[in-house]
Amino acid sequence: MPVLNIANVLTVVRILLVPFFIWFFLVDDARGGLWRWLAVAVFVVAIYTDKLDGDLARSRGLITDFGKIADPIADKLLIGSALVVLSVVGELWWWVTVLILARELGITVLRFAVIRYGVMPASRGGKLKTVVQTVAILLLLVPLQVLLGDWAWWIAASVMTLAVAITVVTGIDYILQALRLRSSARNAGPLTRERG
Length: 196
Hints:
By secondary structure, this protein is mainly α. It has seven helices and no strands. The protein folds into two domains: about 1-90; about 90-195, no CATH class. The longest helix is centred in the C-terminal third of the chain and has 46 residues, at about 150-195.
């Protein structure tokens, strides 16, 4: 399977969009003007490429080792950068950003640590976590205060609280999965592992 295919190109485009998103957002300086809307537009396009590259890779048989590695990196770069810039301008508590990023990094390291016992696939909870985090970030990025006043912040904060809860619960679930994976591989013995 060639590395250069449309799905992988979209993944690379998502990575390349991250600096533009950060720059547009920070240039706006929390004023909610044109630069903020450009940052929102870039974020939305980048998020859409995530769905599109996954759909194309599965439907056209374009899944590659590069894509398996680059796609989650692109996702974490986009979500992580959004959380950090929102915290930098004081629109998101730093503890939320630190907790989510620590969980993402921790689970990534955990997956590599147990890969010799087997692959930990993305769970439904993990996918739900990504969707809720994305919605919460979008609610914070879009300057809705102009239309909704303080209600905009309360709505965004409520969805982000739900995202944090799902992030923690799914993080614990992945840890338990890793422990079960390691335990079952060790109980299987070396001969069974070699045959499998």
